[in-house]
Amino acid sequence: MIITVNNKKIKKEEKIYVVADFDGTLTKGNSKTSWSVLANTNLLPEKYIEDRQKLFDEYYPIEIDTSLSFDYRQNKMKEWFKLHAELFVKYHLKEEFIKQAAKNFDFMEFREGAKEFLDYLKKNNIPLIIISEGIGNFVKAFLEYKNCMFNNIYISSNMLKFKDGICVGIEDNIIHSLNKNEVSLPEHIKDKIKNKDKIILLGDKIDDVRMVNNEPDNKLIKIIWSHDKEYKIEELKKYYDYVFSDEESYLDVINNIWEC
Length: 260
Ligand SMILES: [Mg+2]
Known about the structure:
260 residues; alpha/beta; Rossmann fold; 7-stranded mixed β-sheet; two-stranded antiparallel sheet; 8 helices; 9 strands; 18% strand; globular; binds magnesium ion
């Protein structure tokens, strides 16, 4: 089912770019997130899984508790991701494990039609910016495995650092669910997306709507894949132009949004 809140379309001659979340947006709603994939493999010791769960139990309630102050939650999210990355260092995560895990369909799979959608963007030279609060190394490994890591795609995400194939930490600029609005793109990407007529924004959380800032609403076409039971449809309709239910295909994005 597709709920059209605002019937916005793209005209054939209009220049566009796309901003998309990754986990649960380009991947299926029941896919594991890139932060949780390794806990579902036997690539790291049992102790890692226990330690990771402890962090989850402590920090996830803070992520979703909107009664707490926004600043407090933001700081806690950064703290959570850094501590999780420290576990990867402690348990000697190998870079090759990421590639192995990204190939496992049981953990992570594209939404229906997502590959064709990425092919379509590539063919039409439409820039795609993926802003992910997940682990960028996974996003890249997954797209490479699917033969979709095209040169029109730019990934802004959390990057684990490796030395001699072993994890040694995480890049400083942590992206989490509450600061996706603060992502600063490099100049050569800004250059590619300037002077566009429309922007398609794709997400699966209400906060994903904040991935694009300072653009007038009439330039934006905002689409959410609704699979998170915590959100009510009426709530999603307040923020998004189209609400796609979990089983809809990306081909419906092309068919519904582009005017033929
Ligand atoms: Mg997501």
